[in-house]
Amino acid sequence: MLFLVGSVVYFVYEGELATPNWVLLATAVLLLWFSFAMPTYCDFSTVRGTPCRNRVNGKLRGCHQHGRDKRDAVWRALFRVRNPGEFFRVRWHSSAVAAPQSVAGAARAVTRSTTQGTRDATIFVCTILSTVAGVVGTVASVLGLWK
What we know:
- The structure is a single chain.
- The chain is mainly alpha-helical.
- The protein contains 4 helices and 2 strands.
- It starts with a helix and ends in a 5-residue tail after the last helix.
């Protein structure tokens, strides 16, 4: 479907855009599709160390269980800071209530490495850069600045 749409757009605007613009636009669209629309698996590292096999759309998206963890890992890998969205999350506890005691056999806390976040952050940065380059190249070509 993506190829069909790209072919139609190419033949409609064939003479208006220079070849480098088509390359930049194709790269931007492909990376956007890869990052946010491609049917794939979550692949977030589970407690057992295996990748999550839940279906998602896009490599940067996580499943219903790992979406938040994946976004947090990208923030840690890109900027070395906590996700700013954490400040707006609703916390369903009260400071007046004591923390629950640990239960024997309960799941232990897991610390996430930034390796997966680094990979996802790299995909995100490449997507943003190629999208900006594609848009700038297209605007420059349409305005006649680049032929």
